[in-house]
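Quick entry between incubations.
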Amino acid sequence: MGAEQARRSRITPEREAELYGAVLDLLREVGYDALTMDAVAARTRSSKATLYRQWGGKAELVVKALRQQKPHFDEIDTGTLRGDLHATARREDDCHMEQNSALMRGLMVAVHADPDLLQAFREWIVEPEMSALDRMLRRAVERGEVSPDNPALGYVIHMLVGAFATRTLIDELPPTQAYLASYIDAVVLPALGA
Amino acid sequence: MGAEQARRSRITPEREAELYGAVLDLLREVGYDALTMDAVAARTRSSKATLYRQWGGKAELVVKALRQQKPHFDEIDTGTLRGDLHATARREDDCHMEQNSALMRGLMVAVHADPDLLQAFREWIVEPEMSALDRMLRRAVERGEVSPDNPALGYVIHMLVGAFATRTLIDELPPTQAYLASYIDAVVLPALGA
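Done. Structure below.
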């Protein structure tokens, strides 16, 4: 955390949140490929040197902006697996979920064409979410809610991301909290035998 | 089927398959946005007039090319739900599945930016696959394998498409027949109580 902390301490958390908000607005307006550090600098009235010093580059800046807007998994611990999964589905309100569903569709293609973005995406979004989910599932196993050798334990992340990603294409509807909650009860918990 | 049949009868099935193969090759090389009817005409030594008469436009041509390469669902009826789902997962060999996973990622973004492509995609891929899957599930309900009011019945398509779509991002591995078979046994069948 040392070097990271030192880099971060140069701007206030409020200013950082404002910057991330501007990055996500730009991302929605022009998409990842057309997003430039010049545009971010202009929109946020920062110097490009500051942006590069703080974030290294476009991939890291965009991925951290995405990560920052969502309450972290680790703050969730309700005492039951069902409670934890439902709280996870409620991390974003429906309006943000719809916006992010469009954003993520665009990013999923950019990710596979851009190794920097793929690496940042894995490091700052996929891996932290997966290890927080692993801890959530381990607690459920320790409480006796899920058998430790249930084969669905390895697929919970696929179920959740899959539910989110397929809603628009299949049903012509944005993913919502109610849809995710219903999917958790109909699919995720029964597959886990919970 | 009348008008459709009349349009189709102008070229042989072999020529049609050859054309679809060339369209998919081009799609892999340049992506949907950069694919032009001129390029398809040149690659397949056809006239653009023939292509437009036969397919109406780029969206319909691409979607039918995608649809044609996969054995249809309707030919699957093994007598058990598990047999049917496993046969569904084996419709494409691993090499084709990996190629198509990359293709689909590209198309999923194009689909949401292009109403013609979205409509063709729904009409020629999503709806036929969903109604074939509905028939497969209805047979399982009639055989008593799944309770008719199991809430997971409405999410089988989300589970299958989600498993396919999330494999590369989450595991850095292409979807394979073995992965889909394992997902069906660990998630889909337990969620259906089958």
